[in-house]
């Protein structure tokens, strides 16, 4: 089955620790995206990548980092510099550019 | 940046009722998507609709790009339709800007 997988589903961390969220797709899509959702809010773009070894900051990139070493994978690291890391994180992919985006099931991160 | 406003913010329906959700956007867009977020958080693609009208079962969507709005129609609603409906627009680059959503509750 083709799709987007995110792991883990739930993640708990202590304040001050970096944490990496996984996102893998087998749709052969060139573009991948990370979004953050806070309760009662829409999604906000953190980072996106349109091609391997290249990525751009979104609207709320501060405190986050990404890499795109393989077409299938786009991991997100939430660093200790992110002031409010507790949120629901969603990964998406698309064929390219302005085409339809498809989303993974998300990871709920709780930092205490 | 582009602004996306959805209305109403909340909606409660009896099973079997029809509803219309609206999405207004502040600038020209290259494309538009409607999503349904289920209670587990999964975003499900409903429509990818830059203009015109599309239908999928009990759901249909219309986008009037020149007037900067899109409508999502739900007919004969079912309890499984409950959740949050998001409109998101493509503008400029390849990124989506989301509205804050309409929370729909369908009661039996």
List the helices and strands and how they pair.
The complex is a heterodimer of chains A (112) and B (108).
Chain A: E1 4-7, E2 10-13, E3 19-25, E4 31-37, E5 43-51, E6 54-57, E7 64-66, E8 76-78, E9 87-94, E10 102-103, E11 107-111
Parallel strand pairs in A: 2-11
Antiparallel strand pairs in A: 1-3, 3-8, 4-5, 4-9, 5-6, 7-8, 9-10, 9-11
Chain B: E1 4-7, E2 10-14, E3 19-25, E4 31-37, E5 43-48, E6 52-56, E7 59-64, E8 69-74, E9 83-90, E10 96-98, E11 102-107
Parallel strand pairs in B: 2-11
Antiparallel strand pairs in B: 1-3, 3-8, 4-5, 4-9, 6-7, 7-8, 9-10, 9-11
How would you characterize the overall build of this protein?
The complex is a heterodimer of chains A (112) and B (108). Chain A is built from no helices and eleven strands. In chain A, strands 2, 4, 5, 6, 9, 10 and 11 form a seven-stranded mixed sheet that branches. A four-stranded antiparallel sheet of chain A has the order 1-3-8-7, with no helix packed on it. In chain A, a hairpin with a 2-residue loop joins strand 5 and strand 6. Chain B is mainly beta and 108 residues long. In chain B, strands 2, 4, 5, 9, 10 and 11 form a six-stranded mixed sheet that branches. A five-stranded antiparallel sheet of chain B has the order 1-3-8-7-6, with no helix packed on it. In chain B, a hairpin with a 5-residue loop joins strand 9 and strand 10. Chain B is globular and about 40 Å long. The mean pLDDT of chain B is 94. Classes of the chains: A mainly beta (112), B mainly beta (108).
| Binned strand content of chain A | over 45%
Protein structure class of chain B: mainly beta
How many individual β-strands of chain B?
11
Query: Helix content range of the residues of chain B, please?
Result: under 10%
Which chain pair shows the most residues in contact? A-B, 28 and 23 residues
The best one-word shape of chain A is globular
């Amino acid at each position: 089955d083709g799709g987007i997988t995110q792991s883990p589903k739930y993640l708990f961390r202590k304040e001050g620790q970096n944490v990496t969220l996984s996102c893998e797709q087998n749709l052969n899509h060139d573009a991948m995206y990370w979004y953050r959702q806070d309760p009662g809010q829409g999604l906000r773009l953190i980072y996106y990548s349109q091609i391997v070894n290249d990525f751009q900051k979104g609207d709320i990139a501060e405190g986050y980092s990404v890499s795109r070493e393989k077409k299938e994978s786009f991991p997100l690291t939430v660093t200790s510099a992110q002031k409010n890391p507790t949120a629901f994180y969603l990964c998406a992919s698309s064929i390219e550019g302005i085409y339809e985006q498809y989303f993974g099931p998300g990871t709920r991160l709780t930092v205490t | 940046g582009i602004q996306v406003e959805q209305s109403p913010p909340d909606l409660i329906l009896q099973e079997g009722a029809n509803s219309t959700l609206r999405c207004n956007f502040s600038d020209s867009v290259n494309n538009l998507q409607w999503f349904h977020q289920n209670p587990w958080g999964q975003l499900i693609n409903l429509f990818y609709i830059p203009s015109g009208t599309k239908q999928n079962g009990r759901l249909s969507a219309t986008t009037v790009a020149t007037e900067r709005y899109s409508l999502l129609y739900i007919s004969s609603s079912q309890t499984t339709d409950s959740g949050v409906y998001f409109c998101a627009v493509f503008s400029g680059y390849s990124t989506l800007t989301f509205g804050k959503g309409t929370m729909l509750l369908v009661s039996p």
